[in-house]
Amino acid sequence: MRSPTRHLLRPIFVAALAALLVAGANSPSGAARRTAVPTRAFDGLWSVMIMTRYGDCDRAYRYALRIVGGRAVNSAEGQDYRVDGVVGRSGAVRVIVARGGDWADGSGRLSGNRGSGRWRTSSGQCGGVWSAERRSEGR
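RE: above sequence
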C-alpha cells in the first residue's frame, strides 16, 4: 500500500525547485513568503525532474511548474495541491507543495534556463534532488 506522503511527492517535481532552506517555519506558506524579494527574470513554464535519494517514495518524476512574477504556482487549474514559492533576484528558490496536512519543501538555485536543488517531505520520510529546465510556451 502506498502512503499519502508518497502520493504527495508526485506534484513535488517542483520541489521540484530547491540548500538554503530550513524547514523550521511554523507555516509552510508563510515560510516561502519570508524568502527573498521575487524577480520576473525566471518567469515562464519550467519542466522539473524530481529524483528520490532516500525513503519509500517513487524514484523519479517529471512535473510542469509555472513561475509568474517571481512566484512559483501550479501550472494548471484544478490541481488538488497548493504550490507556494518564490525566486529571488540571485535565482535562489524556495518552494513548498502542500496537500491536506502533508507538505514538502524544496530549495536551490535557478540560473538562466536551468536550475537544481534539494527537496524533502515535512516528516523527513523522503528526500532527494531536483533539476529544472525552462520551456518555451509553444512546447
